[in-house]
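> tool_call: predict_assembly(chains=two)
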Amino acid sequence: MTGSEPTIADAAINREAPVAIHAQISERIRNRIARGEWPAHYRLKSEPEIAADLGVSRGTVRRALATLIEEGLLRQVRGRGTFVTSMTFEPSIAQRLSTLSEDFSAQGILFDTSVLFHGLVAPPQPVAALLDLPVSGTVFQLDRLRSTGGSAVTLLGNFVRSDLVPGIDDFDFAGASLFGTLEGHYGLKIGTARRTFSAEAATEAVAEALAVPVGAPVQYLQQVTYLTDGRPIEYSDVWIQSERLKVTSLLSRR
Amino acid sequence: MTGSEPTIADAAINREAPVAIHAQISERIRNRIARGEWPAHYRLKSEPEIAADLGVSRGTVRRALATLIEEGLLRQVRGRGTFVTSMTFEPSIAQRLSTLSEDFSAQGILFDTSVLFHGLVAPPQPVAALLDLPVSGTVFQLDRLRSTGGSAVTLLGNFVRSDLVPGIDDFDFAGASLFGTLEGHYGLKIGTARRTFSAEAATEAVAEALAVPVGAPVQYLQQVTYLTDGRPIEYSDVWIQSERLKVTSLLSRR
């Protein structure tokens, strides 16, 4: 082991110290993470390897890791190992047709939703075309802002074909989820979606909502959602505050 | 049919005109697309529906569509229908562990690769950690610029564990693909990757490479690739010119 290696065995464990050995180990790991030597998604060696490197028992290593998992600094993924946690939220919306609210809930992240606008409107021309609607028809427009820990992370603008969801404007989408309502209340079978990701400069409206400077880079996502019978049901524009929320894909080669 | 509906049957086909009927139909569709009334990804009605709307034969419709497919304005997807083509390239790298060069090739897009830097270097600290390497080790660094039609679309910075790829610096990556070389020449079994997407402001180096203003929003993608045995093999930073290339996912709900 050389001093330049990012290992936790670069100094011997102090068996005479008043601090328990497992606490010495967790403190070392905590420091590696704090110094950025072990970045987000860094995978730690296995418990037996760490135990052998340090000359301690596996149980001691397990206890040290458990402390850090409880603190939210490490995360264990079955069959893959122990990883340094990312400090930003990482929904997997690039990969599965889940919604941000579902991803937040699955990760145990608390979020607030505020409804900025809701109502039946004439669809903008490109939205009408993508939803197979006449522009003389109406769509249900829903503009929402999602925040976590008091900070805005996403601005969502949805357009839903109103002919398929009579009375939808009576729901309170500060509490209810849009996809949940479409599926649960209206019995619509959501099948597929097409999501396109790009980086955009924040317009005045987006900048104000996400509390970033006008022109700041924001992650933009455009989506068209189709029912299982192929009819388009929903179009959305989503702007994401990239510093607080990064979209992630775990991909397989074969 | 009202004049405000985005249909192609808003004026009667002129059967006396010197222009063939199929050419009149393709010209109408061309105009819809040019005016933005039928945006990228808009799905056209089926051939029988269009034929009925216009009072022409299916064969005439098919001929009109064939012209536009040849011009690259429409695209037919088996089992899904006929769509307006996107004028930007849309790789599905958010969804599959394909590489940009594979996606370009699959879509028949010609691209040029220029190698900006290659060589064995000491890994930056976070890269070393993510690749399970000592910083005293070396990685193969490869910086490339991909262009299509003479315009830069992506700047790629790869770091490969050099211990697993002896002699890799002798390859000419202006022609060879990196993943192809890892798999084909070195017999490495690439298993999974983790890709994270965010919007970033172009740094001076990125701006110069992609020919955008400093601070302009660029799509940033960070990737760590693992072999099937779980060892990390490659880390990369990718910056994408969002106006010319949009990352796409086709997702299923169940």
